[in-house]
Amino acid sequence: MDDAAAAPATSSGPYVEDRKPAGDADDGGGPKSRNLGILRRLIDLVRPHKARFALAVVTLLGASALTLVYPWAAKEAIDAGMKSATSAKLDKIVLGLLALFAVNAVLVWLRHYSMSWLGERVVTDLRAMVFDRVLTLPMQWFHERRSGELVSRLASDVTVVESVVGSELSMALRNGVQFIGGLVFLFVINVKLTLLMLAIVPPIVLVTLYFGKKIRRMSREVQDQLAKVSGQVQESIGAIATVQSFVREGFEAKRYRQGVESTFEKSMTMVRWRSSFFATAMSAGFAGVTMVIWLGGRAMINGEISAGQLTQFFLYTFMIAGALSELAGLWAALQRAAGATDRLFAVIDTVPDVRDAVKTTPLPDGGGAIEFHDVTFAYPSRKTLPVLTNINLQIAPGEVVALVGPSGAGKSTILSLLYRFADVDQGRISFEGVDVRDLPLAALRRSLAMVAQEPVLFAGTLSDNIAYGREGATQAEIESAARDANAHQFITGFPDGYNTVIGERGTKLSGGQKQRIAIARALLANPRVLILDEATSNLDAESESLVQAALARLMKGRTTLVVAHRLSTVRDANRIVVIDNASVAEQGTHEELLAKGGVYRRLIEHQVIGENPIAT
User: Fold this and answer.
1) pTM to 2 decimals?
2) Domains and CATH numbers, the chain
């Protein structure tokens, strides 16, 4: 496709993802509403599995409640040992504890399994939701991003969410139950000591909020840097032949090293803050516990509480301190996850510019009639420089029309607008007499099939790649399309025939073989309109002859749009349309345009070299 079609957009496009979410902690807004928003979105993912979640919560509450019994049992055992001359009561307490241990083990297993299942289920659903949305986004969205960044979101970002739902949520609920339950028991044992212990909570909460805000911002920076590095890796590997041919291995290695070193530095900054946070929170907590031990010991000496009650108080205090410490750690973990979660939901929430109308018009029967009426279009990155201006073009059913013009003139942009990869800024494009914006997008695109200069093949079998043209195609239909595309002979020459795996982007095939597979795929799709975008420009004479023969079968009885520079490709078209300076400069047959001596003749003269005169 020409340069105009691939023009990148700026990051200030119309997509939801590019807007900073309201309430971002980094911009001075309150993080509370944002955290609640993320939590609501995660709950939405869990809601379809509410029975499993209910089982997890019930077993978690049961296991946590049983944990609260142990300090009480220790108090009873100590007091019984100090007051009774026999071990009967102690024996009963121990037997009861053993029974509780067995029940607790079952509850813990069920809780862990259920929460882990939920984590994996949410990750699976989230990956599917992100990918489903990505597949519907317009081309312009992809022009703004590296593919490696998208892969990073589906991999590392989703894994962060898995840890939140699968383990951290469970830990937060468990520690919350233990904190509240332990606090109730402490008030029952001794109100004064409990109030003293609680005096340390507000400072810890303030420290948690302060550090959490910093850690969250740093986490987002780390995730963004990782996505950038992933994009570099995919770009380098995807162009490995170019890298090696220009001997740029050292440059790419250095660039990658700089990227990962930057990630390391950002990660270490975050680690230092996290370490400081944990050290501060734990020091404050244990300082308070030390004070409670001192005052509790004095209370026992004064006869205010028994040895068993003091032990019970200490155990509940340690339980609360541990729960509070883990909750603080979980808060930091949630802050780390917030950035990744935001990025994922930003993709899911992105509303594509190009989508079906609220009320669509069914695609009428027809032979592929196309009309461009006063079409003007400019890419978002350069709105002041239209790629097309007032384009008027009518193509009759079954007509073969060639689009020619200088590189960057807008030829491939015309094809993109017909496909609705973008929508026109002014004017309209009609297909079978209906504005393409009113047609169902799927129906429109199923009526079109493109054979490009570099056909995109997938890393499956030859059969899979041909069948990509139509869902549910039979093997007989696949082989028939391959025969018509002059591909059956070379396919059957492979040991595995149609089951041959062709590698990523069809690396095991020659250029001519790739083109014939692409033609077979288009034949199987049976489109109303065939689009040939420089389909034979990179082929040798023998391959071009085979491809041209296959294209002749494919074009028969179909409206065909041909984008090409080569004379052999366009001279037999019913009509040649010359695009220059963003508009239709001239149109007619090959002979008519040569006779005019205009833009078309100049293009042909530039192509023909040496002793080869222009054939008229």
Assistant:
1) 0.62
2) 28-349 (1.20.1560.10), 356-447+530-538+557-616 (3.40.50.300), 454-526 (3.40.50.300)
